[in-house]
Design a protein that fits this description.
- It is a single chain.
- The protein has 280 residues and is an alpha/beta fold.
- The protein contains ten helices and eleven strands.
- The longest helix is centred in the C-terminal third of the chain and has 20 residues, at 257-276.
- Bound molecules: NADPH dihydro-nicotinamide-adenine-dinucleotide phosphate.
Length: 280
């Protein structure tokens, strides 16, 4: 079994970005907005800020109270849309229930939508002609490439069909010529379908969602889940100790897909900078 080391792969990607930024004198700018005080969101936002500092980016953080109105949030996004120092804008999800996430995502200027959550970006990913990569799925693809894992013709099963992980993951694997099955909470025979997977990607958000009896001997197991356990620690969806005995490759949580998501976000922000400044 090979433990997929997302930290190292993400570091390599951030190092490439940081040296390009340094050598060319670029100043990509990322604005991160957080609404409310969700502890998990706070951790993600801090990690994004750290990655910006590491890559030599300019960054701004806006922390709005949970009581902030949708109009206030959209007014801030519009201000950032017009700010030349800012190339990428991301609004950390989830948002408080009184704010319409879709309206907020769609308010971000397409040239600055580095999370690639807008309907237009999701559609472009489906067609396979996109500028901004969907961060988490693209991070998974980068891990598969780094470890020379053959995807073409393989059976890939994804558990989860969210717009930010499951669906774009399916598209990227399909573009890489995998034969893709997407499962969800209504899927019948989940265990059997998962057992047919050469590559199994779990994006459920539940500890223990993937047990060893769902995994084929020699499968590649990618755990996107990030769940806070009753022990206060982060856990993936996969029963790691049991599944690692069967998998050929497996990602840990933490230290697997998570760092890749942030590295791809940095890559998208650099792309946005170059495109906004007409640099080829
Ligand atoms: P969502 O809650 O939006 O989606 C979860 C999906 O899992 C849904 O499609 C749901 O099905 C499906 N599901 C739920 N229960 C079951 C079940 N028992 N059997 C089969 N399918 C099930 O989550 P996200 O996609 O946003 O995130 C998934 C996980 O990934 C979370 O833990 C999140 O924290 C993590 N995450 C990690 C990132 C990283 O960087 N590593 C980035 C983004 C997310 P249905 O559609 O039928 O409800």
């Amino acid at each position: 079994m090979v433990l997929i080391d997302g930290k190292t792969v993400a570091q390599a990607l951030k190092d490439r970005i940081a040296s390009e930024v340094r050598e060319r004198g670029y100043t990509p700018g990322l604005a991160v907005i957080i609404v409310g005080d969700d502890p998990a969101s706070r951790v993600y936002v801090n990690n994004k800020k750290k990655a910006c500092a590491y890559c030599g980016f300019y960054s701004e953080e806006y922390a709005l109270p949970a009581s902030a109105s949708q109009q206030e949030l959209i007014a801030l996004i519009e201000k950032l849309n017009a700010d030349e120092r800012i190339d990428g804008i991301l609004c950390q999800l989830p948002l408080p229930a009184h704010i319409d996430e879709k309206a907020v995502i769609e308010a971000i200027a397409p040239a600055k939508d580095v999370d690639a959550f807008s309907e237009a970006d999701v559609g472009k990913v489906m067609i396979g002609n996109y500028t901004f990569s969907p961060c988490t799925p693209a991070g998974v693809m980068e891990l598969l490439r780094y470890y020379d894992i053959d995807v073409s013709g393989k059976s890939a099963v994804i558990i989860g069909r969210s717009n930010i992980v499951g669906k774009p993951m399916a598209m990227l694997l399909l573009h890489a010529d995998a034969t893709v099955t997407v499962c969800h909470s209504k899927t019948e025979n989940l265990r059997e379908i998962c057992r047919s997977a050469d590559i199994l990607v779990s994006a459920v958000g539940k500890i223990g969602a993937v047990t060893a009896d769902m995994v084929k001997e020699g499968a590649v197991v990618i755990d996107v889940g990030i769940n806070r356990g009753s022990d206060g620690k982060l856990h993936g969806d996969v029963d790691f100790e049991a599944v690692k005995e069967k998998a050929s490759y497996i990602t840990p949580v933490p230290g697997g897909v998570g760092p890749m998501t942030i590295a791809v976000l940095m890559q998208n922000t650099l792309k946005a900078y170059k495109s906004n400044k007409n640099i080829n």
